[in-house]
Amino acid sequence: MRILPVAGGPVRQVKSTLTVEDMQIPKNWWVMPSIYVTHENDPVTKIDGDNSHMDLVEGFKPQRWLDEKTRPKEYMPWGASYRFCAGHILAMAEMKTFLAVFCREVKGFDLVNVDNHDKIKWKFSAICTPKDGVLISIK
Questions:
Q1: According to the model, what pLDDT value does residue 19 have?
Q2: How many CB atoms lie within 10 A of CB 53?
């Protein structure tokens, strides 16, 4: 969810005119910060210079979240505070149910004809999915 969030980001209305990187955003305009870009450019979790922290394989370094600067509030897949995702409990239940059934029934699986994960093309919408699907071989 950090590497490829399913949602684009939270929608907010600007309370007062502000300037971000020389661009003025007028009062009452609607903005949608990108969760993906936030995590991709976060100086706290970006521990390399080559963007490998966003790679599906190389980027898996859970120890980065043990530091005081990277507590759960720094990672926002569900939002925070009173704007916390209303579907969080349902989404977690669906993921846990899927994983429980999958693990019980499957001995293993492999991606078919995928030599490089970076070559997978994504369809970006409310829920990001592989553009042409991804074939898997289940054992």
A1: 93
A2: 20
CA-to-CA dists, residue 90 to 48, 84, 85, 98, angstroms: 35, 13, 10, 12
What's the pTM value of the predicted model, to 2 decimals? 0.41
Average pLDDT value for residue range 84-101:
84
**Element containing residue 94 per DSSP (H, E):** helix 88-105
State how far the Cα of 62 lies from the Cα of 47, in Å rounded to an integer: 12
The answer to whether residues 42 and 51 touch, using CB atoms and an 8 Å cutoff, is: no
* Pair of tokens at residue 63: 């120890």
pLDDT digits (tens, 9 = 90+) for 52-89: 666 656 666 667 667 776 665 555 666 666 667 778 88
CA-to-CA dists, residue 57 to 18, 98, 100, angstroms? 38, 22, 23
135 Cβ partners below 8 Å, 6+ apart? 111, 112, 113
